Amino acid sequence: MASQVLRRLLTRSLNKQLCVTERHASGFQFVPDTPDPKLGKTEKKNLYQAVTDALDIVLASDPTAVVFGEDVHFGGVFRCTVGLAQKYGKDRVFNTPLSEQGIAGFGIGLATAGATAIAEIQFADYVYPAFDQVLDSFHAVRLETFTCVIFLGLLVGE
User: Fold this and answer.
1) Beta pairing partners, 96
2) Who wins on pLDDT, 15 or 111?
3) 3-class SS at 3?
4) CB-based burial of residue 24 (10 Å sphere; 0-12 exposed, 13-18 middle, 19+ buried)?
5) In this structure, are strands 150-154 and 65-69 parallel, antiparallel, or unpaired?
6) Are 115 and 58 in contact (CB under 8 A)?
7) What is the rounded distance in angstroms from the CA atom of residue 107 to the CA atom of residue 126?
C-alpha cells in the first residue's frame, strides 16, 4: 500500500516536472511575416498549387517551353500539371513513355535545340537510370554551348 502511494506521488511529481519543462529541438520558432501591401495582393497556396502556377507562368511567357513526363497530360502523379494540357495544347504538355533515361535524353535534345525543357520524372527514386544522360550528355553540351536550359523535376513526397 505504501509503495503504491509513493509510486503515485512520484508519477505526479514527474508529470508536473515534464509538463512545466518544455524541450525544443532548436531555439527557432516560426512566426509568419505579414506581406508588404506594396507588393500587391497575395494568396495562400500549398506547394502543388505554387508549382502549377509557376509552370503556367513559364508556358505563357515562353513559347518554346515544353512540359513532358510520365502522366503530365493528365495532371502528373501529384496533380501539378492539371489543366495545362488543355490550356496550352498537347504539343507543349504531353506524356512520355516510362523511360527515365529517355525523358532525360529527350529533354537534353530539346534544350540543345533551343527550347526550354521541363521534364518530370514521377519519383526521385526513379532518377538513377537518367543520371547517365544528365552527367554525360548534358554536362558535355552545357560546357560546349553554355545555352542549354533544362529543368528536371523530381518529386519527393508521401
Assistant:
1) none
2) 111
3) helix
4) exposed
5) unpaired
6) no
7) 16
Rounded to the nearest 5°, which phi and psi values hold at 69? Answer: 160, -170
Record the cell numbers describing residue 24, joined without a space. Answer: 525544443
- Residue-wise pLDDT for 45-73, tens only, equals 888 899 999 999 999 999 999 999 988 98
pLDDT tens column, 104-135: 889 888 888 889 999 888 877 778 888 877 77
* Residue reference for cell 511529481: 13
Mark out the alpha helices in the chain (DSSP H runs).
2-20, 47-61, 84-88, 100-112, 131-132, 139-145
pTM: 0.69
| Cα gap 119→116, rounded to integer Å | 10
**Sign, CA torsion 66/69/133/153:** positive
Distance CA 81, CA 67 (A): 9
Where do we find the cell 523535376? 153
Going from the C-alpha of 95 to that of each of 13, 50, 99, 114, 119, the distances in angstroms are 62, 21, 11, 20, 10
Tally the residues of the chain: 158
